[in-house]
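Subject: for your reference before the review

Hello V.,

The reviewers asked for a structural picture of the protein, and I figured it would be easier to keep everything in one thread rather than splitting it across files. Below is the amino acid sequence we used in the manuscript, unchanged from the supplementary table.
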Amino acid sequence: MNRKYILDVHCHTVSSGHAYSSVTECAKAASEKGLELIAITDHAPKMPGSCSYLHFLNLNVIPKTLYGVEILKGAELNILNKDGKVDLSEKILRKLDVVIASLHIPCIKPMSFEENTECIINVMRNPYIKIIGHPGDPRYPFDIEKVVSAARETKTVLELNNTSLSPENGRYDGPDTILKIIEECKKRGVFVIFGSDAHFHTNIGNFKEVEKLTERMNFPEELILNNSVDKFKKVLGCI
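And here is what came back from the structure prediction:
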């Protein structure tokens, strides 16, 4: 791992139902890799096999730091319709440190190009949602220019998801869409965040594939949020 990147806010635990590590294992792995901060972002309830809303109400029992790593409590929401409905209430969302929202096949079927675009933009208008997860999923094509423009307007961060670039992953369709997102974010000065989307603790902080793409596009370091805890918290409103 390139140690200039010191945080990873897309990490899953056994509570997601199809991930295989504990919070403690995730924190220890992050510490061993030199990370300063991680967020636990398990799948919200509409994902088959995931935890109930009670999981998210009780996240405050997790220590604020483990193995010297700051632990933020969050969720990866499931987008449920083109109006931007998600599967946790406002009451719960306001208690979380980090909220990611993503399109997942078990929760919403791909729509038309125009409907996918409308859907993502509507989600970004939710003030509690700060990050759009793996927007490069080729099963949900959308208007990249419109979405990046809306991200700038709503101060939403777009994730560059490392797992999406793995051939073993179900979302894989090459880097083409992600490269276009990177290009448009560079053009418009929109922040991005690298996400490992780790479902096993050894993958936390693994950004190798997205690093290659941002370097290839000469993407400015100042628009990447993984290299400064203070910058990350300021942009997401955590401080």
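For the response letter, the relevant points are probably these. The CA atoms of residues 5 and 224 lie 9 Å apart. The mean pLDDT is 95.

Happy to draft the paragraph if you're swamped.

O.
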